[in-house]
Amino acid sequence: GLDNTVMYQNVTDGSSVFRVPEIVTRNTLYYEDDWFKGKPMRVNIGVTFRYFTSYFANAYNPILAEFTLQNEEEIGFPTFDVFFNARVRRTRLFLKVDNVSSLFSEKNYFSAPNYPFRDFTVRFGLVWNWFI
Fold first, then answer.
1. Phi, psi (5° rounding) for residue 38?
2. pTM (2 decimals)?
3. 62: which residues sit within 8 A by CB, 6+ positions away?
4. Cα(48)–Cα(26) distance, rounded to whole angstroms?
5. Cα 46 versus chain centre, distance
6. Whole-angstrom distance, CA of residue 51 vs CA of residue 54
7. SS3 string of the chain?
8. Count of CB atoms within 10 A of residue 83's CB?
9. What Cα–Cα distance (Å) separates residue 129 from each residue in 50, 64, 109?
10. pLDDT tens digits, residue range 18-77?
11. What is the Cα 31 distance to its own chain's centre?
12. Sign of the CA dihedral with 110 first, then 52, 81, and 34 last
């Protein structure tokens, strides 16, 4: 499967105060199938690509606990996530590798100026829904 979201945004009046990236995209390419005889396990394996164009994002001021305007640092970067999900009845197992692109790209990505975006991370877990 392929799920795509592409958003174009443009501030016509007040762009000096309200700042947003011009293009934001999220694209997921995945494989989904039932495994084993009798189809007891549904699996979902794929990769997600996210990107937003560079822009002067608002800076966070922890003393004021507010975001403020800044004109010094632009942020905008691509990320890749890889995932594996398996569902058996009410139980779901997952493995997700966040920001794989940080392994081979420059370490210069921020969620806000001076606040780094999360680095390469491996998450795994078990979700067991008791009453569904």
1. 85, 0
2. 0.81
3. none
4. 7
5. 14
6. 9
7. CEEEEEEECCCCCCCCCCCCCCEEEEEEEEEEEEECCCCCEEEEEEEEEEEECCECCCEEECCCCEEECCCCCCECCEEEEEEEEEEECCEEEEEEEECHHHHCCCCCCEEECCEECCCCEEEEEEEECCCC
8. 17
9. 30, 41, 36
10. 889 999 999 999 999 998 888 889 999 999 999 999 999 999 888 989 988 999 988 888
11. 19
12. positive
Q: Which residues contact 7 (CB under 8 A, 6 or more apart)?
A: 23, 24, 25
**Residue 45, token pair as written in the block:** 């394996």
AA letter at 97: V
Judge contact between 25 and 51, C-beta under 8 A. Answer: yes
Q: Phi and psi at residue 37, in whole multiples of 5°?
A: -65, 135
Can you say whether the dihedral through the CA atoms of 69, 73, 119, 127 is positive or negative? positive
Closest CA to 1 of 47, 34, 38: 47
